[in-house]
Structure formats: C-alpha cells, structure tokens
C-alpha cells in the first residue's frame, strides 16, 4: 500500500477489516470490486438494519473516544495498527483499482461497524491514533464520509475524533450531497452503487429546502430519517417524522421500521420532513434547534391555515417570526415589510396585518432569536387546534365531521365546532374495519356499559391511517400525561405495538441528557445565525458538563415555563432534568417510605442510569439506553407497585396506560410459631424445606421481575426492539403498558385487506391473542408470535404472569384483557409445575413443609407453593432473558451486573442486568425489597422492585387480612405504582426454615 | 396564545338603561309574564347593579341610554360576544332585537374593539342566530349552548371569529339559556345549578374540555348566574343574587375564598327570564392582548 493514500483507505478499511477479519481474508483473495460489492451488499443489509438503529445515531452521538475504543477492541485483537497497514495493503490492492476500493471499504466498514459498532465505540477511544477512528464517525455516512474524510483522518489520527465529528456534522450535509457526488466520481463506486441499488431520496425540509441523499433501495424508513436528522443536527428527533404522498395523494407517515420501498410503492422517492408529534409544552424541549424546527412547522401550519388563529394572534406570531429572523426592528429600514411579504406569513396577508406585525415587532426589541422562537411557541401552543391532526369522516348519521387526533385524545368537530371529545383515558379500544373507525368508550360514572362509537371514513386506507395516527399519538403522549399522579412521566411507555419510536416522556428523558453545546444553525430565511457559541458542534459525551457554552439567549428555551431573558440559560436547561429528578426523588421518597415502613433497612439506591445512554437512545439503535433511564424511574414505581397490589387491579381497570409493576408477596404462615400476625417480606429465600417451591419461587420472582421490568420498559424496549429488529416490524408486546386501552391493529402491510381487525390490548403485550391477525402479513405475525415465544422461553415468569389470571385477584384485570386469554392459555412449564396445587386446597391446616400458595383473596392452600398473578403482559420480548435476570438468592446481597458495553452492545443483547439490590430487614414482619435493573435491547433499562413480605404468625392469623393490609400500606405509600404480580406463598411449620 | 389569559380581568362594563317599555315584550324566559314587572323596582335594581360595578368593583361604566323602541335593549349580553379586543355583534333570534346592535356597535368602536358582524363572517349566515347569553367564555374556551335562541350556525360564526379558542357546543338542558344555568365564578370556576338539566350540560362541558374547572354547585337555578370580575386591584368580586332571591345558595358563595361578595338583586329582570349577567357586557381594554 502506498503511503498516504493508503492511510486514508486504511482508515476506512480498518474498521472494515477489523470488524470483519474474514472479510479481509476474503478480500485479498478476490480483491476485486465484485467481492467488495458482495460484501457491500451484505454489509448494506446489515448496515441498514443496524445503521438505522445503532450505527448512525449512536455512533454519531457517542463520543469519539468511545467509538474508537470499540474499534480498537475489534481491530486491536486482530490487527490494531498493523491491521490498518495490512488493510492498507489490501487497500492498495484494491486501490490499484482506482476508487472502487474506497467504496467497497466504505460499505464494508459500515458492515463491520454495524456489527461491531458497540465494541468499536468503546475501543475507538483508545485507538484514536489508529485509523479506526475514521470509521467510527457516523456510521451511516461513514461510508461516504470515510471515503472523503479518510485522508483527513489518517493525517489527524489523534485529532481524528474531533475532526471527524466536526467534519461529520459540518460536512454531514455536504457529504450527504457531496459525498455522494464524490463517490459517484469514482467509477467503481458507481458500479457498486448500482449493484447496491442505491436510490436518491429527496426530502423537503421544514425550511423549504431539499435534502438529497442516497439510500439503499431496501433501506428502512429510519435510515433515511436519521440521515435527515443528522443533516439537521437534530437530536430531539422523536417529535418529527418523514412523510410521503401515497398513490392516492394522501400524506402518510413513513414507518421507520419498514422498508421505504415497500411503503411508498412507487418510484417517487420524495419525502417531507415535518413535525409528527407537537409537543404540548415546547418550552420543555431541550434544544433551541428543536424549537426552531417546530417554529418552522408552525409557521407553515399557520400560513396554510391548518392551524387557524385569530388576526391578532396571527400578527403576534408573525412578529416573533420577524424578530427571530431579522432581529430588532430598525425604524430606519423599511425592510420588515419586505420581509413580511417575503415570509409569506399569512394566507390573508394584507396591509393591516403588516402594520400590526410591525407594531408588535417593535415591542420585541432585544429579543434573541431563541427567545422569539420560544415566545412564538408559547403563543402557538395555546391555540385550540395546535397539534390536532384532522381527518375527514362522517358520523353515524352520515354527517360530515372532522376527527382530530391530538395529545389528549380524539376530538370530533363539526365544522369548526367541537361537538365531542374522547380523552385517551376514556378510550378502551381503537379499531377500524374497512372504512369504519371505532372507538370503544369506557363507561362513565353513571353508565354501566361500554359503548362503541363508529365513524365512517372515506375508504379503508383513510380509516387505517387514522387508526395508526391514533395509536401513535396515544403511545407517544398518553404516558407522559401530567394529569394524575400516575407514573406516567417516568414510566410512560408508548404502546409499542405500532409506534416504534420513543414516547414523549422517554424522549424528554433522553433530551434532558443532551450534553452538547448548542449547535449553530442558520435560520434559512434570514441567514441569521442563532448561536455563535461553540464553533464546532462537538458532541461531548461526558455527562459532567451541561454547561457547554450556552449563550444567554438560548437559555430561555430551556426554561419550560418561560422564556425569561438571558440569564437563566443553563438553569433552564437543567429544568428538565430537575423536573425529572424531582419526580425521581418523589418516587424515591415514596419508596423509601415503604422501606421504612416495612423494613428498617436503608432504602436501596435506585440504579444509576447512564444519561448518556439515554441520549444515545435517540437513535433507534441506541434504544437500549433509554430503557436504562426509564428503568431507573420504574424501580421506584415498582416498589410502590408492590404495595399497591390489590389496588392495582382496580386501577388497571381504569387506567389506560399505566406501568404495571408486579409485587410478589409471599405469606408464610407458621403454624407453629405463636407470634402475632406479622407481615414480613420473605422474598428471596423461600423456605429451604421446599426445595421445589424455592426454585419455583425464585424463578417466579425472577420471572416476575422480568415481567415487571418488561412492562415499564417494554414500551421503550419494545420500540427499541422493533427498531433494532429488522425483521420484526411490529412488537405486539408493546401494548402491555396500556392497561385498558386496546388498540386493535390492522396490519400495515395488509392495508389492502379490509376486514382485518386486529385489536390489541394496549394493556397487554399479548398480541398473540390478536385473533384477527390472521390477515396480517405473515411477516408481522411472525415477529409477534416469535416474540411472545421468545419471551416465554426467556422469561417463563412472564407467561406465568398471564396464566396466573386464575387467581381471584387477577381476574378483574384479566377480564379486562380479553386478548390476554390466549396467552394465558399457554402456561409456561415452570408455572405449571408450580401451580399444580393452587387454590382450593386448604393449606393452612397442614403444617407440612410444603409451602402453600394462597391467593390474596383466597385462602386455599396450594401445595405447590406459588401462585403468580401478573396483570401485565406476559412476555414482551425475547430480549429479556431469564438467564440474564439476576437472581437474588440472598437478601442481603447486592448483585450488580454491569453490562460490559452499555452503549453499543446492548443492541444485540436482549437484557443485561444492570443492578440488583436486595435489602432485607428482619423483624416480625420481614420485608425484602429487590431492585433489579436490567438493560434491555433498546438501551432501556427497567427496574423492577420486588417486595417480599413475610407474615409470620400463628395459625390464627388472618393472612388475607395481613396481606391486604400490607398491600394497602404499600399502595398508600406508592399511589403511583401498580402491583403487577402477587405471589402468595403459604407455609406451615416451615417458618424456621425460612431464611428470611 | 396571545389572547389567553385568566378569566375575569375587565376594565369596562357596557350597560343600557331600563326603558319605559320594560317588560312589554315577552321575555324569553317566561312566555307570559305572569307577574307584572315593577318598572321602578327594575330601575332601582339596575341602578344597584351599575353602582356595584362602578363603585365596588371599580369598572369604567359605559351606559347606553335606553331606547323605548327597544324594550329588550337592556339585555346587553345578548347583543355581543366580546373576547380580547374583538367584539362579535350577534344575531339575536328575534328579529325585533337585531336593531339593538347599532348602539352597541358604536360603543365597541369607540372602545377600539375590532367589531365583527355575524353577517360579515364567511358570507352567508343565513339562519344563523346567536345570543350572548348562550355563550360561556371561560378564559380558555367557549361553550355555546344550543338553545331556542342560538343555533349551530351561530356557533360556527362564533368559532370562526374567535379562532384561537376551542368552541364547543353543548345542549342547554336546564334552562332557557346557557348562562341561566351556569356562569363563571372565578378564573377556573364554573358555578352551575343543581338541576338535572344543568348537570347534564355540565357533564357535556366536562366531556368536551381539555381543561379542568372547579365546579361550584348551587341548589337554586337563580343563583347559578353570577358575575365574576377580577377588579383592577386584582381583587375577586362576585355579584350574586341576594339571600331573598336564593336563600339556599348564598352559603355556597361563602366558600369562595377571599372574595368580595356583592349581593345584587335582579328579581324584576328575572321575571323576564334575564339574569345578572344579562345586563352588562364586560370588556378588558387595559390589558394588552398580546
């Protein structure tokens, strides 16, 4: 290999080679482009899958050093530095064939990167000097960039990180375009691309400009979406989406989890980037650039009349636009008027409007662009039609109406008049059949029966589209609803089922962790640069500093409440964090209370979540991280859940989207021991005497834990999975989080099939139950089924949970979940084994070693010991492997599993146990609290709190009462938590054996 | 949005005196005024009302002289719906009343309000009728009661005029007019009567709204209509019917914290189906609506 040229190529190659050593071997053999192409193709596929998820987003956001570390790890083992050279040699070989090498490498790199992304990330840091650094950058663009940048990188090995990042961001756009062009320049590349079947996508951005990029023909929606976000330097991307116009001139959202080609069904690769979910409180957005984009969208909405507003409001909004774009009003200049006309601010723009705008503009003097944007949003968000997505329909009487989907629910308009409204909590089920759209309404206070309201849409497609929008909006917003003290914010999870992205609460969590200097962006209409702060848009990975040079102006946005002038910029930023933290603290407090009340032991500290990871999660690939964050919150809730067990059932009925937590309560009644009735938590250690029972319990607990985790995190995890899993587009499991709300899904693919009614229970993941799904495309079904199975396998507990319905406690919930039944039918083997003796048998009398399982309500003794009641969903994702689930055998022990690679690795790994803590305090009442935090695929972490309460007392003790009391107390302490599972274990005479 | 601010901030009240022909036309409430109205008493009560608004609450009072040709002209509330700096001149159900708007229109212009005519909006408003006493503005949204005097078309015009706000239609079940069964008792408080019809209407409102309102239920329908004003001194004033007119409901008003309660008699007007709020149009001009 030659000197410098080689270095460039080397860099590129290294990643490629390092990740895939075999590739290298192969390469030398063939060396030809064809080989490269073949690789590329494979790589592309992989890349697509992975890139979409991890590679791009994650790699991009990950600190360079992390990336480098990983790369090194991958590369280092094999070749590290030398490899580069070797690669170089290879490269040289390839290079002998002009450019093709580069291309091939780039692609290859992508593959390798994708595969090894995680490792690479970690190691990359170490290998800064190594060429690998080059590959590290954004994976998606890497290929392209790498080719272009590689030279730079090679030169700037150490600096490569920054340079790359900067280059990437700065040049990302260029690369996207230029890179492509450059690539094209080399004949080889052309060839490859042709082979790879690249397609040029045209994405119309919010500022009216067009972004052009190439994607593989089989790329999924998220690949393109992330490319666009990367181009925009947008981190809070969950509020946005790509749309396309279908053959019927209808605007449809591009499903990120599906191949673009299959969605657009045409050769018109034109897309629009726009706001998909209008944040109810834009001030909670973390970054100004996000607000800016939202402003652009709203300007368009107002101008087009989609967002109706009064004359005054219109003028006011326009005046803020002027201020943001052009700054203070200059009396000398007549510009503003020109600008106004340029801006095409309003449909009914006239002289009067212009004058009003100018008048108002003058009053904004001194306002920074960011402040003006914030003010704009503060006013726009109050408009009654803000964020309302209208759909034409007819009511049951054939009268034309509009159905508006928004963050709060479904609105019914007749002309401009609101004639009805169905808040998400009131909606039990959303379904469509042919061109009919149905919602099932929860009975009101005075009503006894559920009612179903039907609307007629123009055709099946529009019904389906409406249904999907409803599902997505419900998923995105519902959980974060601030209304009741529910867990919504933290726990909030979207219904996974169809919505593959993050929920609002999740994205807030993630965005709160954004730690990068406010990116510079140019206001296209005015070319005004909002921020001059940090020259290079570096993304700092370190959690420590939030401060990155935010300018005072910027600060305003961060303040959720408002845009106060300068000063509080950072505070503002931190506000989000603060809020979440506050909530967390609350939860913790509540948890701690529980602990105090039940146990004397110090409250377990909630597992730390890597904020970073959360950030990373923004990219689909990184979803895992989110889970962690989320997980952190859930734990507290879980604890509460435990307490609430009895309540949860009821709440579940009512609450639509709640995180269900399982509580494992074991009652051990010692006949022999005369003590007063004690409520003790005997979670971890089951009576030794009952070997089987113990095991069962342990399993069940673990399972339960898994279930719980899965539930709270599921949404996230699900989403992540969905994204991560290329094959599985739908995650039925997602639904779990929604207790009552059922959203019947129709298969997207099957859109054509009219009859499909797939109803999903929002609550439960048991998508499998979906009977109608038969119509669904096989692909969808398969994934769904597969997941459940996987879950079953991995976490037997989950299935059990469903099965447990048999328990009286559970019944209500189950009843609610009609769908659950099928799943329930499937009883995990483990449970079956355990279950045998459930209810019905009077165990109390028998003082035998056999632990008896007693349902809370029912005293019957089950010899087998365990009755597991789980309200939530059975198995969500295979990801959660039982194996990984930490088993807490000893109460006092704290087991912490740290995922070796939180960032990248998580993708492949189903669930990594982050931490497990068990705190046991012994007393008459023994309460054991176990915190288990797992990392799921998505990068999400779930924390489940298991509480074991051991009630020790004479036979006389009313266990049911004691249990009820314990649950009641727990419930009171953690009103926002729900009890997912209650396991009652009754033991007679075994008391001594109990280790707890 | 710009125009959204807590309900109750007013600076001006526009009223119109009691004409000598008071009661000569059938009030919409009572088909046949059984009890003959006492004109003098009605004038006294009107004087008390305006006095309270001006001296107690501290509003600037704009009084339009009565017009004997327009026996119902004192029902100012019906003639216009005002929010922010926009005044929608309504189209009352009864043809005879439509000429009442002229004087009101003039006053609105003098107060520099943007006057919107129902006829202006969106071309044909054929058949559209709207009366202000069927409109409940909460500061966040409008509820328009579909009654014998207000129809859906009228509500549509209102929605077109006040585009910033959600405009919901509700059936008026418990009374002739929406404002007869409910009124605002605070920035987020709705006072509503205890009748079944009113409850039904309230349920509908609760169903339709995105916001949460406190609800103050009063046992007598006559007590359900109050006038809440946050005075210039940021003090809460509530004009309500005196004990004599609603003996059972006054105690409910006492629950309102830190309110200055102003018992205001309205017995004569109520014989014609009117209520306290019927007498005045409340305007906030000091507050910049931006």
Automatic annotation (TrEMBL), chain A:
It is found in: Cytoplasm, Cytoskeleton. Residues 626-643 have a biased composition (Polar residues). InterPro entries: Band_4.1_C (IPR008379), Band_41_domain (IPR019749), Ez/rad/moesin-like (IPR000798), FA (IPR014847), FERM/acyl-CoA-bd_prot_sf (IPR014352), FERM_2 (IPR035963), FERM_central (IPR019748), FERM_CS (IPR019747). Residues 199-481 form the FERM domain. Residues 37-57, 89-98, 114-127, 136-177, 548-560, 575-586, 691-716, 757-767, 775-795 have a biased composition (Basic and acidic residues). Residues 746-756 have a biased composition (Acidic residues). Signal peptide: none annotated. Pfam families: 4_1_CTD, FA, FERM_C, FERM_M, FERM_N, SAB. GO terms for cellular component: cytoskeleton; plasma membrane. Residues 1-182, 502-587, 626-655, 685-813 are annotated as: Disordered. PROSITE patterns: FERM_1 (PS00660), FERM_2 (PS00661), FERM_3 (PS50057). Gene3D superfamilies: 1.20.80.10, Phosphatidylinositol 3-kinase Catalytic Subunit, Chain A, domain 1, Pleckstrin-homology domain (PH domain)/Phosphotyrosine-binding domain (PTB). One of its GO terms (molecular function) is structural molecule activity. GO terms for biological process: actomyosin structure organization; cortical actin cytoskeleton organization. Its main location: cytoplasm. Keywords: Actin-binding, Cytoplasm, Cytoskeleton, Phosphoprotein. This is FERM domain-containing protein. It comes from Gouania willdenowi. The gene is epb41l2.
Automatic annotation (TrEMBL), chain B:
Keywords: Hydrolase. One of its GO terms (molecular function) is hydrolase activity. Gene3D superfamilies: L-arginine/glycine Amidinotransferase, Chain A. It comes from the Eukaryota. InterPro entries: DDAH-like (IPR033199). Belongs to the DDAH family. This is N(G),N(G)-dimethylarginine dimethylaminohydrolase 2-like. It comes from Gouania willdenowi.
């Amino acid at each position: 290999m030659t000197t410098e040229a080689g270095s460039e190529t080397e860099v590129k190659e290294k990643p490629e080679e390092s990740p895939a050593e075999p590739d290298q071997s192969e390469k030398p053999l063939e060396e030809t482009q064809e080989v490269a192409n073949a690789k590329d193709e494979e790589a592309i596929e992989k890349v697509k899958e992975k890139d979409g998820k991890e590679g791009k987003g994650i790699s991009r956001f990950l600190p360079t050093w992390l990336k480098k570390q990983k790369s090194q790890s991958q590369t280092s083992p094999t070749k590290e530095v030398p490899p580069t050279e070797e690669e170089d040699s290879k490269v040289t070989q390839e290079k002998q064939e002009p450019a093709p090498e580069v291309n091939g490498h780039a692609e290859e790199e992508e593959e390798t990167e994708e595969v090894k992304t995680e490792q690479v990330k970690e190691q990359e840091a170490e290998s800064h000097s190594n060429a690998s650094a080059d590959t590290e950058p954004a994976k998606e663009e890497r290929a392209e960039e790498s080719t272009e940048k590689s030279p730079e990188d090679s030169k700037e090995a150490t600096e490569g990180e920054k340079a790359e990042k900067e280059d990437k961001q700065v040049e990302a756009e260029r690369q996207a375009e230029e890179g492509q062009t450059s690539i094209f320049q080399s004949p080889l590349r052309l060839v490859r691309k042709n082979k790879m079947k690249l397609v040029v996508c045209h994405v119309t951005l919010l500022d009216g400009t067009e972004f052009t990029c190439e994607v593989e023909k089989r790329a999924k929606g998220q690949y393109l979406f992330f490319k666009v976000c990367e181009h925009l330097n947008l981190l809070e991307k969950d509020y946005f989406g790509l749309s396309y116009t279908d053959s019927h001139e209808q605007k449809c959202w591009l499903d990120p989890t599906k191949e673009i080609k299959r969605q657009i069904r045409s050769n018109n690769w034109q897309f629009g980037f726009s706001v998909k979910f209008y944040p109810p409180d834009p001030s909670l957005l973390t970054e100004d650039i996000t607000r800016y984009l939202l402003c652009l969208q709203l300007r368009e909405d107002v101008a087009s009349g989609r967002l109706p507003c009064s004359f005054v409001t219109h003028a006011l909004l326009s005046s803020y636009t002027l201020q943001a774009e052009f700054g203070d009003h200059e009396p000398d200049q007549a510009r503003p008027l020109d600008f106004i006309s340029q801006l095409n601010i309003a449909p009914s723009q006239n002289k009067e409007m212009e004058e009003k705008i100018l008048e108002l503009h003058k009053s904004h003097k001194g306002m920074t662009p960011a402040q003006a944007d914030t003010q704009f949003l503060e006013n726009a968000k109050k408009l009654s039609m803000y964020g309302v997505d209208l759909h034409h329909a007819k009511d049951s009487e054939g009268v034309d109406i509009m159905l508006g989907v928004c963050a709060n629910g479904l609105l019914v308009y007749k002309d401009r008049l609101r004639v009805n409204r169905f808040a998400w909590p009131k909606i039990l089920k959303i379904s469509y059949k042919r061109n009919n759209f149905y919602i099932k309404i929860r009975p009101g206070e005075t009503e006894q029966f559920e009612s179903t309201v039907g609307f007629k849409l123009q055709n099946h497609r529009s019904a389906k589209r409406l249904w999907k929008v409803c599902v997505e909006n419900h998923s995105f917003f519902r959980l974060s609803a601030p209304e009741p003290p529910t867990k919504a914010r933290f726990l909030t999870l979207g219904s996974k089922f169809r919505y593959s992205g993050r929920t609002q609460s999740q994205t807030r969590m993630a965005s709160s962790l954004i730690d990068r200097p406010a990116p510079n962006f140019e206001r296209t209409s005015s070319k005004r640069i909002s921020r001059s702060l940090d020259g290079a848009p570096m993304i700092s990975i370190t959690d420590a500093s939030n401060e990155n040079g935010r300018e005072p102006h910027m600060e305003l946005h961060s303040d959720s409440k408002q845009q106060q002038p300068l000063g509080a910029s950072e505070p503002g930023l931190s506000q989000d964090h603060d809020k979440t933290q506050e909530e967390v603290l609350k939860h913790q407090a509540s948890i701690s209370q529980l602990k105090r009340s039940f146990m004397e032991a110090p409250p377990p500290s909630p597992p730390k979540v890597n904020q970073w990871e959360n950030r990373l999660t923004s990219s689909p690939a990184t979803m895992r991280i989110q889970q962690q964050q989320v997980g952190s919150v859930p734990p507290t809730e879980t604890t509460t859940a435990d307490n609430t067990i009895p309540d949860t059932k009821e709440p579940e009925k009512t609450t639509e989207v709640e995180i269900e937590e399982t509580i494992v309560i074991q009652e051990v009644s010692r006949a022999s021991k005369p003590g007063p009735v004690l409520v003790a938590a005997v979670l971890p250690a089951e009576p030794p005497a009952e070997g089987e029972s113990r095991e069962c319990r342990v399993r069940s607990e673990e399972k339960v834990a898994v279930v719980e985790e899965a539930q709270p995190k599921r949404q996230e995890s699900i989403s992540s999975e969905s994204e991560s899993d290329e094959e599985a587009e739908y995650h039925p499991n997602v639904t779990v989080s929604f207790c009552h709300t059922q959203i019947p899904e129709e298969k997207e693919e099957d859109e054509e099939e009219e009859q499909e009614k797939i109803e999903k229970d929002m609550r439960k993941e048991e998508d499998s139950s979906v009977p109608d799904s038969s119509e669904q495309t096989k692909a969808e079904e398969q994934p769904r089924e597969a997941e459940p199975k996987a879950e079953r396998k991995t976490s037997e507990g989950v299935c059990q949970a469903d099965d447990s319905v048999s328990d009286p406690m559970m019944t209500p919930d189950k009843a609610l979940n009609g769908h659950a039944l099928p799943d329930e039918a499937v009883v995990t083997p483990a449970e079956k084994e355990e279950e045998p003796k459930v209810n019905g048998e009077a165990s109390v009398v028998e003082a035998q070693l056999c632990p008896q399982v007693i349902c809370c309500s029912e005293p019957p003794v089950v010899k087998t010991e365990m009755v597991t009641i789980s309200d939530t969903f059975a198995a969500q994702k295979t990801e959660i492997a039982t194996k990984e689930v930490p088993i807490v055998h000893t109460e006092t022990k704290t087991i912490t599993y740290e995922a070796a690679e939180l960032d990248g690795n998580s993708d492949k790994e189903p669930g990594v146990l982050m931490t497990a803590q068990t705190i046991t305090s012994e007393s008459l009442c023994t309460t054991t609290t176990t915190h288990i935090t797992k990392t799921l695929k998505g990068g999400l972490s779930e924390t489940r709190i298991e509480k074991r309460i051991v009630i020790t007392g004479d036979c006389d003790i009313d266990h049911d009462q004691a249990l009820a009391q314990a649950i009641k107390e727990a419930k009171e302490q953690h009103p926002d938590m729900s009890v997912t599972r209650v396991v009652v274990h009754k033991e007679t005479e075994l008391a001594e054996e109990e280790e707890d | 949005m710009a125009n959204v601010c807590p309900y109750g901030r007013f600076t001006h009240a526009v009223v119109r005196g009691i004409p000598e022909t008071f009661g000569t036309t059938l009030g919409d409430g009572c088909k046949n005024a059984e009890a003959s109205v006492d004109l003098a008493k009605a004038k006294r009560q009107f004087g008390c009302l305006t006095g309270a608004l001006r001296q107690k609450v501290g509003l600037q009072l704009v009084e339009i002289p009565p017009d004997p040709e327009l026996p119902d002209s004192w029902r100012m509330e019906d003639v216009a719906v005002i929010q922010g700096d926009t005044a929608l001149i309504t189209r009352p159900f009864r043809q005879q009343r439509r000429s009442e708007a002229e004087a009101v229109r003039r006053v609105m212009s003098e107060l520099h309000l943007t006057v919107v005519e129902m006829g202006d909006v969106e071309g044909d408003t054929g058949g559209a009728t709207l009366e202000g006493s069927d409109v409940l503005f909460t500061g966040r949204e409008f509820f328009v009661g579909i009654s014998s005097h207000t129809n859906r078309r009228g509500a549509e015009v209102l929605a077109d005029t006040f585009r910033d706000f959600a405009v919901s239609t509700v059936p008026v079940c418990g009374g002739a007019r929406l404002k007869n069964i409910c009124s605002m008792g605070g920035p987020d408080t709705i006072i509503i009567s205890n009748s079944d019809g009113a409850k039904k209407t309230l349920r509908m409102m609760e169903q339709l709204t995105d916001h949460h309102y406190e609800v103050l239920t009063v046992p007598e329908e006559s007590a359900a209509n109050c006038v809440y004003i946050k005075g210039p001194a940021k003090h809460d004033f509530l004009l309500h019917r005196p004990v004599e007119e609603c003996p059972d409901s006054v105690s409910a008003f006492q629950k309102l914290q830190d309110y200055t309660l102003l018992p205001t008699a309205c017995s004569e007007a109520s014989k014609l189906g009117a209520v306290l709020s019927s007498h005045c149009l409340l305007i906030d001009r000091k507050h910049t609506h931006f």
